[in-house]
Amino acid sequence: MVSTETPLCDFGAPAPDFALPGVDGRIWTRDQCKGARGLLVMFICNHCPYVQAIRERLVRDARELIDLGIGCVAISSNDANDYPEDSFDNMKRVAEEFAFPFPYLYDESQAVARAYGAVCTPDFFGYNAELGLQYRGRFDASRKETAPPDVRRDLFEAMKQVAETGRGPTEQIPSIGCSIKWKKD
């Protein structure tokens, strides 16, 4: 398992569009996922211990961000042939088990992950109402283990600021996680 760190935030970079199948049977686009005050695109998967360490908090924070007008969407782009735990059927199971309040989409071709420049799970892209990138940092201090309950909520605080001001924080700590599991050519 290779740990990968996200690059610095490219402030203002536009959110690429997408049309991907969700575990709910619908096809979702970027604009359908967007909220009135912004959009949080999260590249996650089922098997990654970095994602597993934050899943319950991710659901909590997404619910609160949705209430603030930030639309949230999770995308899995891993090669499910080599990582069957990340299959579409298992995505459905995980979304139901953790009561995801956001669409959970499957990027089977991996084209959306490439368009965003996603490098790891979890990888967070926080956009303002104009769909300009404002956050590319970590969720919180969790790694493969869940951080203490009183830890600073980096992602939540950054996206709350985006909802209120349209701008993300200038200081951001990169996310770290398992590398995206790219298909072999």
TrEMBL record:
InterPro entries: AhpC/TSA, PRX-like1, Thioredoxin-like_sf, Thioredoxin_domain. GO terms for molecular function: antioxidant activity; oxidoreductase activity. It comes from the Bacteria. Residues 9-161 form the Thioredoxin domain. Pfam families: AhpC-TSA. This is Redoxin domain-containing protein. The lineage of its organism: Bacteria, Pseudomonadati, Pseudomonadota, Gammaproteobacteria, Chromatiales.
